[in-house]
Amino acid sequence: MEILLVGCGKMGGAMLRRWLDAMPARFTTVNRSGRALPPGTEHVAGHEALAGRRFDAIIIAVKPQQIPEVMPDYADLLADGGCYVSIAAGYSTGSLANLLNNAPVIRLMPNLPALIGRSVNGLFAGPACADLHRELADQLARTTGMAVWLDDEDELDRLTAVAGSGPGYVFEIARSYIAAAEALGFTAETARSLVLETMGGAIEMAARSDQDVAELRNSVMSKKGTTEAGINVLRRDGQLDDLLRDTTRAAYDRAVELR
Ligand SMILES: NC(=O)c1ccc[n+]([C@@H]2O[C@H](COP(=O)([O-])OP(=O)(O)OC[C@H]3O[C@@H](n4cnc5c(N)ncnc54)[C@H](OP(=O)(O)O)[C@@H]3O)[C@@H](O)[C@H]2O)c1
Description:
This protein is of the alpha/beta class. It folds into two domains: 2-164, 3-Layer(aba) Sandwich (Rossmann fold), CATH 3.40.50; 166-258, Orthogonal Bundle (ProC C-terminal domain-like fold), CATH 1.10.3730. The protein has ten helices and eight strands. It has helices at 10-22, 67-70, 93-99, 131-142, 153-164, 166-183, 188-208, 213-219, 226-234, 239-258, and strands at 2-6, 26-30, 42-44, 55-60, 78-86, 105-109, 119-125, 145-149. α5 packs across α10 and α6 (166-183) packs across α7 (188-208). The protein starts with a strand and ends with a helix. Bound molecules: NADP nicotinamide-adenine-dinucleotide phosphate. NADP nicotinamide-adenine-dinucleotide phosphate binds at residues 6-12, 30-33, 61-64, 66, 70, 87-89, 109-112, 164. Residues 6-12, 30-33, 61-64, 66, 70, 87-89, 109-112, 164 line the site of NADP nicotinamide-adenine-dinucleotide phosphate (NAP).
């Protein structure tokens, strides 16, 4: 199988590293800026170098705003029976099909822990897709993490707002937590290690537990103890709930704008 990857930046590059290890396919990558990319793939500078070639799948990994300018140049490179797989946020299967000769399009929404095989991948197949296309997209997803198929494209945009953008929220929360630890007097290095190990351990424990996370929170709070004192501030006036609801809503609204 011949697969073309258009856009090999942070997200496309992270996924490519996993695909090269696990997928029985040959990957060609468009590498406009000539950056160092993993061995085992053929790199070309642009679509001009691909004249006459055909690919069984073309993966769209440029920014959503770049799609209308970039992707029409790749509309004739899909083999008969092939499909496009887009990892771009928001840009709908309908809009992509309009640019790409009404070819089958699957949207695969990953997140950055694909780098360590822990991506949360949402998938949605456009109307022209066959089982073969779904199987390929499922394999592309599962070699980077978990796969969740959705029947409704709007749900994929909601998943984007929670999981696709989610690592960014987690990094920002961790940054703020580390700054708070530094303000209590720890060095930057110690603060980072205390916070990341605490977050990692607590999240791993919650993921392995059958208990609701609110129950787990209660289980670490004793009456008039230190955790209760901290949690009372964290939950003050429901500000944290409002903030996270507004955060995910803003990301969803942006995905809708990009359709
Ligand atoms: N980053 C995430 O956490 C994340 C999560 C889920 C989904 N996504 C989606 O993944 C896609 C890529 O995002 P990213 O974060 O990886 O962005 P990025 O690092 O900026 O990568 C974009 C890539 O597009 C390439 N590109 C731009 N114009 C091109 C052209 N004319 N021909 C060929 N390649 C071109 C760039 O190549 P040059 O560097 O050579 O210009 C770059 O490698 C986006 O659609 C985004 O919605 C990202």
